[in-house]
Write a structure and sequence with these properties.
Blueprint lengths: L18 H12 L3 H8 L3 H8 L7 H13 L9
Helix pairs in contact: 2-3
């Protein structure tokens, strides 16, 4: 059976270039420590440090966990355009 290409119905958005700043703002407004943030997301603290410094980006699973946590803390606006 030949393979078929599936076209996206929605445009793919680029990852926000200001993510480290958004993350720092989230940390400040949430009152969470970096360690507590990594614990709640289920990631290693070094991973969150790399996000904070712009050396890495969260994968889809981590980004969804971060958005859920932000929504739970009424800070979801920080990660939405």
């Amino acid at each position: 059976m030949p393979q078929r290409r599936i076209r996206n119905s929605k445009p793919v958005r680029a990852f926000p270039g200001d993510f480290p700043e958004r993350l720092k703002r989230f940390k400040a407004e949430s009152g969470l420590s970096w360690f507590e943030l990594s614990r709640r997301l289920g990631t290693h603290p070094e991973t969150v440090r790399r996000w904070k410094e712009g050396q890495a980006r969260p994968n889809a699973e981590n980004m969804m966990a971060l958005c859920r946590l932000a929504d739970d803390l009424a800070l979801g606006r920080l990660f939405r355009d």
